[in-house]
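Q: Convert this sequence to C-alpha cells.
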Amino acid sequence: MTPPVIELSDVTKSYPGGVKALASVSLRIERGELTAIVGPSGSGKSTMLNIIGTLDRPSSGSVRIDGYDVSELSDSRLSALRGTRIGFIFQSFHLAAKVPALDNVAEGLLYSGLSRGERRRRAAVALERVGLGHRLDHDPHELSGGERQRVAIARAVAGDPPLLLADEPTGALDSVSGAGVMELLRDLNTSGTTIVIITHDREIAAGLPRQVRMRDGRIVSDSVTDVTEVATRRNAEFGVA
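A:
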C-alpha cells in the first residue's frame, strides 16, 4: 500500500514563553491531492509549512513525509529528503539577480549530484513546462512578476519532487498574473504532483478541491469543494462560455 505524501499525527510545536504555534494537529494528504491550508495571520499555517517542509521539527507528535519518519532522520538525511522529495515556492520568488532564468532554475539542482550540463538540461525542460521556454536567457529584472513566479515554480519542480509546497504563491502578483500561476499549479497537479498551498486568501482556497482551515494552531475544518461548480460560477462572473 502506497503511503500518503503527508501524515501528521498529534503534532505540537511550542516556543519559549509558552507559545504554542501548533496544538495536537493531525493531517493526512494523499498522493495527487491539491490542498489549501488557509487561515489568518497567527493561525499556525506558516508553522505547518515549516513542519511539513521539514524546515523545523515538532515539539511532539509524528511527522511522515513520503513515507519517511522525520524523527528518525539525521540532519543530513533530512536535507536530502527535502532536496529530493519537496519543492518550495515562496511569495517573494527568491531568484538570484542578474542570473538568467535557466541558471536560476539549474541552481536549484546544485546538490542533486547531477552534472552541470544535466542540471541545465532539466532546467530548460522545467521552464518549457511552465511556458517560459522563450525566456531562458532573461534575467529576473527583464521578467514580469508572473514570469518570475513561473521561474520559481520551474525551479521547484525541476527535480520532479512528489510534493510541492507553495507559500502565498500569488501574494506579490496582480490578479491576472495570480490567476495564471494558479492555473499552472492546477496543471502541475493534474500531471501528478501533490500540491499544498498555504494562503490567507479564502477565494483562492475555495477554488481548490480541499481546504484545511486553521485557527489558533488547530485545524478547525477540513472540507472538500466541488471545483467544477466553483469554476462554472467564476466563468459566469467573467462572461466565459
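Residues 6-97+161-237 form a domain with the Rossmann fold fold (CATH 3.40.50.300).
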